[in-house]
Design goal:
Oligomer: single chain
CATH architecture of the largest domain: 3-Layer(aba) Sandwich
InterPro entries: Glyco_trans_9, LPS_LOS_Heptosyltrfase
Number of helices: 11
Keywords: Glycosyltransferase, Transferase
Helix content: 25-40%
Shape: globular
Number of domains: 2
Organism: Belnapia mucosa
Strand order of the largest sheet: 8-7-6-9-10-11
CATH topology of the largest domain: Rossmann fold
Pfam family, one: Glyco_transf_9
Protein name: Glycosyltransferase family 9 protein
Order of helices and strands: EHHEEHEEHHEHEHEHEHEHEH
Strand content: 15-25%
Distance between the termini: 44 Å
Length: 301
């Protein structure tokens, strides 16, 4: 069984597709699966069972990245092609079965859209793949027996970012002696690059030696292992939020100008705190500390 699985450019969408992949692996345990994804999402699948290899789709002008994919996979014979990007590619290759997601916005959560492709109700939850070496690395980065709170104060768009001082205040309340996670320390996570580092810097400065700076410093499988060690993750709508939910860690997603009905975190223990007026572009500052704290307490309870 040979499957070509064409998935997302962004980390969050890629993570959401892992539940479908997990279903395929369980349904056909001898299958060899080739992943086609964007470079940023490569690490989501790095530890995936049954992965034969990964094809990186780097976006090019005039959609020439599809020509790149053709060079890598177009002349192969496939038992199944799954195309979550709604392209024509699946219809141009030799395949016994084609499963293609239709384009355009659909009502409901993205996970439901994915499940409908195979008639799965409820849809399979995302999973996070990491190995023993990743777990050992996470134990080194987050040492000790006390609780850790993961914080994701960054995002790919500044309007989705909750104010840094509220992240700090929320951590103070959660880790206070009378809080739900007394004495907790903070693991600050974010993607690579100067923009995400700048978003996280005020939180790191305020928390000092109570926080570990992991922004742009670890690979995605290591980040998954770190998140799995946390007692709670609180973050803006981002790929890290979805990765945390996939590990099973209690995950609180903070939402302003993004579609919570489509992209709320999906996992065994998740919650959202939604800004008044969302999804208006300027709504995120309206999300209060009290609302986020109540959501976090409810999730931990």
């Amino acid at each position: 069984m040979r499957i070509l699985f064409i998935t997302a450019t962004r980390i969050g969408d890629a993570v959401l597709s892992t539940g479908l992949l997990d279903h395929l692996i369980r349904r056909w345990p001898q299958a060899k699966i080739v992943i086609a994804c964007g470079p940023a999402a490569e690490g989501v699948f790095a530890r995936m069972p049954n992965r034969a290899w990964t094809i990186l789709l780097t976006k090019r002008r005039l959609r020439l990245h599809w020509l790149d994919l053709w060079r890598e996979a177009g002349l192969e014979r496939w038992d199944m092609v799954v195309d979550l990007r709604g392209s024509a590619f699946a219809w141009l290759v030799r395949a016994k079965r084609r499963v293609v997601m239709r384009g355009g916005r659909q009502p409901g959560h993205r996970l439901g859209h994915l499940g409908k492709l195979f008639g799965l109700e409820p849809p399979p939850l995302p999973v996070a793949w990491f190995n023993a070496a990743d777990r050992a690395r996470a134990a080194t980065l987050l040492p000790g027996e006390g609780p850790w709170i993961g914080l994701g104060p960054t995002a790919n768009w500044d309007r989705k970012v909750w104010p840094a001082d509220r992240f700090v205040a929320l951590f103070e309340r959660l880790s206070a002696p009378d809080g739900p996670l007394p004495g907790a320390r903070a693991a600050i996570l974010g993607g690579p690059g100067a923009q995400e580092a700048a978003m996280a810097a005020p939180v790191l400065a305020a928390l000092g030696d109570r926080a570990v700076d992991l922004v742009g410093r670890i690979a995605l499988p290591e980040a998954a292992a770190v998140l799995a060690r946390c007692a709670l993750f609180v973050g803006n709508d981002s790929g890290l939020m979805h990765l945390s939910a996939a590990t099973g860690t209690p995950t609180l997603g903070l939402f302003g100008p993004s579609r919570v009905e489509e992209y709320a975190p999906a996992g065994r223990r998740t919650a959202t705190a939604i800004a008044p007026g969302a999804p208006a572009l300027d709504s995120m500052p309206g999300l209060t500390l009290e609302a986020a704290l109540a959501a976090a307490r409810g999730l931990l309870a």
